[in-house]
Design brief:
Largest sheet: 5 strands, antiparallel
Number of strands: 7
Radius of gyration: 38 Å
Distance between the termini: 74 Å
Helix content: 55-70%
Strand content: 15-25%
Structural class: alpha+beta
Order of helices and strands: HHHHHEEEEEHEEHHHHHH
Length: about 475
């Protein structure tokens, strides 16, 4: 039996690795086509670009592994059935459940690995990827100099070049004209025959070295003072903010940058805050209305002199209606603010609960996909990639649409987070158990539809029976 199990698992390894690479490549190409133009326009070094896409590989792997499990099960069991190996196993007294069992146990191990991955690796990678994307967004693009076009993106300068030769770190230019208006009281105009432009990564300054040129300077407060200088070499150091990528660090983490333990602790803290606010609201309402229940105040009787032995009586004093109205409006505003805070905290709890359930429901999908992929592969009797890919796409569409729709409903508190994240597994899992049951009883695609065919025949027969009229009986 262990020899058979090793053989079945071995036949799954190749399709699993192949499908994992293909699915990962599809996700990665989608990310590249969407983000690469924006990243390259910032003038980033190759190492930063590779780091950015490597950090995004974490969430791609977390989604691609369950898909690869389904494709591998369809391809492997389809080949077993197409080569009549399933028939040979069953003729040897091996049940379908024992054939599926090694792959199912392997899917449990993969699910456990993904649970660990989603709680210890994925949050840190998502956090670092978000910080890097934010740093890239703040970085100023490199100089986009074009021959014969005035460049105005330098703070306090405009530049025009007639010819430019781009090198990896330096731009060599000819016929350079620079207008310097950094000083509001004076203006400078610089022209040079040649020059080179590069970014000093140590100081973060844009360095422009000019050769064989003239500088014209005019004092705007005293226009009679005009200077013209000839220079063999002139160096300009221009401070351009965010020209160098500055890496930031932040302790703040979003929902997808936290482990399940961190989110559960935050959920517990939010529930405590809600309980405290409930108590505060109840105390405010009680204090407000209790002040109107004790409206009797002792006053001296007007018929007796005030002094020793004078009697006192209690009379009921009502506060003015306007004051009652103002106090009620103030109480209403305070209670409404507290209720809005409770509503925001409950939305936060639902959102965090969805992410917690997602960290476990997606890994468990590996087990569910084996239950549905193995019998489908056996019944299809074909282990081709086209069959496996087409069938997998249909189940992926059902699974992910249910998952995304459930997440949206749970975030708006229409359904519970558990049902939102586990409904897809429940539906696909029940379908898988149904297919396994029919595979045990030699089911094919036609026998699976037998119950529906019987129902259709019964409805057709029922509609064909016409009621007998009294005239027909006579």
């Amino acid at each position: 039996m262990f020899i058979l199990w090793r053989y079945i698992i071995k036949e799954h390894i190749g399709p699993f690795i192949f499908s994992l690479c293909v699915i990962t490549l599809v996700f990665l190409l989608n990310l590249v086509f969407r983000e690469l133009p924006r990243i390259l326009s910032r003038g980033l070094p190759l190492g930063v670009v590779i780091e950015y896409f490597s950090l995004n590989m974490a969430w791609i792997v977390a989604l691609a592994v369950p898909m690869a499990v389904l494709v591998a099960a369809l391809m492997a069991f389809g080949r077993f059935s197409g080569d009549n190996e399933v028939i040979a196993m069953k003729a040897s007294g091996i049940a379908i459940t024992r054939i599926i069992m090694p792959v199912f146990i392997l899917s449990i191990l993969i699910a456990l690995f993904l649970i660990w991955f989603n709680n210890h690796v994925l949050p840190d990678f998502n956090h670092r990827a978000r910080l890097l994307a934010s740093d890239i967004g703040r970085k100023r693009p490199t100089l986009a100099l074009e021959p014969g076009v005035i460049y105005r993106d330098l703070p306090g300068y405009t530049m025009l070049v007639k010819k430019i030769i781009e090198k990896p770190d330096t731009a060599y230019v000819d016929s350079v004209y620079i207008d310097d208006y950094t000083n509001p009281n004076a203006t400078k105009f610089i022209s040079a025959n040649q020059g080179k432009i590069y970014l000093n990564r140590n100081t973060g300054l844009l360095t422009i070295i000019l050769y064989n040129g003239y500088m014209h300077e005019l004092d705007l407060q005293n226009v009679e003072q005009y200077r013209r200088l000839k220079f063999p070499k002139q160096i300009l150091a221009i401070s351009v903010p965010d020209m160098i990528l500055e890496r930031s660090n932040s302790e703040y983490r979003g929902d997808r940058e936290k482990s399940a333990a961190m989110m559960n602790a935050e959920i517990a803290e939010s529930k405590k805050e809600i309980a405290i606010v409930h108590q505060r609201v109840q105390k405010k309402i009680k204090t407000h209305f209790m002040q109107y229940l004790d409206l009797y105040v002792p006053v001296a009787d007007s018929s007796e002199s005030v002094g020793a032995g004078s009697s006192r009586t209690n009379i009921k004093i009502f506060p003015p209606f306007d004051r009652i109205k103002i106090e009620m409006q103030r109480l209403q505003q305070e209670v409404r603010g507290e209720l809005n805070f409770i509503d925001s905290m409950e939305r936060k709890i639902y959102r965090l609960s969805v992410e917690v359930q997602k960290k476990y429901s997606i890994p468990v999908a590996c087990m569910v996909f084996v239950l549905i992929g193995a019998p489908l592969g056996i019944m299809s009797r074909r282990g081709s990639l086209a069959m496996a890919g087409g069938t997998s796409f249909a189940f992926f569409l059902l699974y992910w649409s249910t998952l995304i729709g459930g997440e949206e409903l749970a975030d708006n508190r229409y359904i519970s987070p558990f049902m939102a994240m586990w409904l897809a597994n429940i539906i696909v899992g029940i379908s898988g158990v149904y297919l396994v049951f029919h595979s045990i009883h030699e089911a094919t695609g036609q026998t699976l539809l037998a119950p529906f065919i019987k129902i259709k025949k019964w409805l057709t027969k029922r509609n064909s029976i016409k009621p007998v009229r009294t005239s027909d009986r006579s």
